[in-house]
Amino acid sequence: MKNNLFPIAKEGWNYIAYSFVAFVVFSILDLDFFEFISFLLMLSLIFVFRNPERELPRFGDNSVVSPVDGSVLSIEEAQTSDYAYKVTIESSYTDVAILRAPMNAKMNSISKQSGTRLSSNSLLSNKLNENATIIFEDENSNKVKIYHMLKQSFSEIKIDAIKSQKLFQSSRYGVMVDGITTIYLPQNFRLNITVGNELNASESLIGYFS
Asked: Is residue 131 part of a domain?
């Protein structure tokens, strides 16, 4: 992400600034309860939008790492002609919200759909919730499709990249607070994860192209 190497992701600066202003105002008015609540809110927002550096394990040229922090909900067959598997990862408010490139590749396409922010338990969430779809393609024409969908988040999905932009594995490309990520993988892919695994973006290996 361009110019987003600060300890706090730039997408969170406005939220943190508003909570700080509220804290100052309530302090001046001597409203102790609201002063305490606004201070807790400010600390919570700093935590949610933290932007840590990550160690970059050398998995190899054909590797794919997790683009998000979260837990693996499911691994299923994909019912499409282009992809054989789909891995679903759930992220919460306690997970780092930064999105990272899963491999050395260019962004073949980017699309974002505005929508609601229903609970993932709702039958309508897959159709109505805000989402973004990105297809990464490496120099060997291997493609990985990533679908991000918000749950009950206060912040929209931010994609800080453009079509055809080349990214190195683990490069920051956006922010998603509290969402579901589905990774679509082709037939020539060997998975290295199981349901229930806890993943860290850029540090956890999803698998390899064969």
From this structure: yes
Which structure tokens are listed for 30? 């001597």
CA dihedral for 97, 51, 157, 24, sign (positive or negative): positive
pTM score > 0.85 for this model? yes
Task: Fill in the amino acid letter for 83.
Answer: Y
CA pair distance 12, 48, nearest whole angstrom: 8
| Percent of the residues in the chain that have a pLDDT greater than 90, as a whole number | 88
- Domain-located, residue 99: yes
Is pLDDT above 60 for 142? yes
Q: How many percent of the chain have pLDDT more than 70?
A: 98
